[in-house]
Amino acid sequence: MHKHHIVFRSQGGLDFPLNYKIYRGYDDHEGMNGPHRNREVDLQLKRELQNELMQLFTNTHYTLREIADKLDVKEKYLDQHFKRVYSHQGKYLRMDIIRKLMGGKLY
Ligand SMILES: [Zn+2]
């Protein structure tokens, strides 16, 4: 089993289940048709993730607790990574959340 980060860690990707894709073997993951060598496959996965996040976060803003619940991660983990994301009275804007989860850019 190979756990792939759709937004790579090196691209600012975080550890949350939606950002994982499980591959059965090395070839699917690292081979010529896998996301590390095929840019189209990589981009397709990223666009799908972005769409899922758009559907998951539909309100204008969320607290860190709410974001953590939706992503199925610990609030403490997100807190480390959201320090530089703009917030107002403890609330983060929808598109700032999605951009952060996509590694700082939109696809
Ligand atoms: Zn990978």
Key terms:
binds zinc ion, 5 helices, 107 residues, single chain, elongated, 15% strand, 3-stranded antiparallel β-sheet, alpha+beta, two-stranded antiparallel sheet
Give an overview of the whole structure.
- This protein is α+β, with helices and mostly antiparallel strands.
- The chain has one domain (2-101).
- The chain is built from five helices and five strands.
- The strands form two sheets. The protein has a three-stranded antiparallel beta sheet.
- A hairpin with a 2-residue loop joins β4 and β5.
- The structure holds zinc ion.
- Zinc ion is lined by residues 4, 29, 36.
In short:
By secondary structure, this protein is α+β, with helices and mostly antiparallel strands. It has helices spanning 26-30, 39-56, 64-71, 75-81, 94-101; strands at residues 2-5, 20-23, 61-63, 87-88, 91-93.
